[in-house]
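Reply to dn_fold:

You asked what the input looked like. This is it:
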Amino acid sequence: MNRMRHTMQKRKNGFTLVEMLITVSIFAIAFIAIGAIVIGFSSAQSNASESQRLLNEGNFLLEAIAREIRMSAIDYSCGLDLATTHDYICLRSSDTGSIHIRFRQVTSPSTLEICSDSDSLPCTDTADWTVLNPDFLRINNVAFYTFPTENPLAFDAHPDQIYQPVTLILMEIETGGGKRLQQFQLQTTVSSRIYNF
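and this is what came back:
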């Protein structure tokens, strides 16, 4: 009985060093685990936000090009071989003359550019080309595939070969780097509402 009372007296004085170390260790492990979960969630949310931003910008850019093609006619007299040239497209508009869209890889980073042609200022390399893509969005490739590759409304076209021109646009975009690299491949098909001028 005396011994039991002695043990009870010892317990009332406080925790032992071993008990304190075990308690502190358990809380430290719990805080580390919770911190890792919060950091992981925050990183995943940031990546998802960046990915959505890239996708939104890419779709906006793709739709801007598609709108130009939809509201214009494919300019078959531009001097391009549509069967082999896929980084440049010429359009004819009823109100603004010619519109040229090109994917330019000679600059760093690569750019997607547009130019409105006029008699006083033709679209040459020294003309004022407007860059369409924002700085944070890198474009790896843009390709225009137009069918048919020759003017379907030319005077010597066979009646069986008259088609409304259709253009397939392919675009590869990315942003970030390393583990935060985000990449998308986008595509759309658009037909010109205007056949020819």
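The first helix runs from residue 2 to 12.
Hope that clears it up.
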